[in-house]
Amino acid sequence: MLVYYFGTKEALFTAALESRRQNFRLAFDAVSSPEEFVLALRSLLREMTAGSKEPEARLLIQILGAGTAGNGEYRAFASAAIADMTTALRDAILRMGGDARTAGGHATVIGAAFRGLLIDRLTSTAASEADQEAETMFSMLADLAAGRR
After folding, report:
1. pTM to 2 decimal places
2. How far apart are CA 57 and CA 81, in angstroms?
């Protein structure tokens, strides 16, 4: 019945994930310091891997992956989701006083790293090790976002 309403299973899945895209932006809307940036990343990763949003996160990763295979609906969603994530991160970097010339590139790297951490955490059999690696990455990402080398 639901597939009939949405037309295709792809449209059903992408409609279900629209709120996830908005939640990512909301997580970074108030960020104005490197500490808040790390807290937002940490909270979002925890929510998406050990909280109530885990099933959505698993579906999101699958759809992002399917978007690389040429499926038009998944590709459009994946492209828009990554663009939204990058924009939210870039805007937070700029609020932290980041350089406007590099903020977009840094946001792209941070978004890619976050998606990688999400995949690692969702597929790892050693959750504590994945969490420790995430903390190391968060420190590196905060330095990048703040323009520190």
Report:
1. 0.83
2. 12
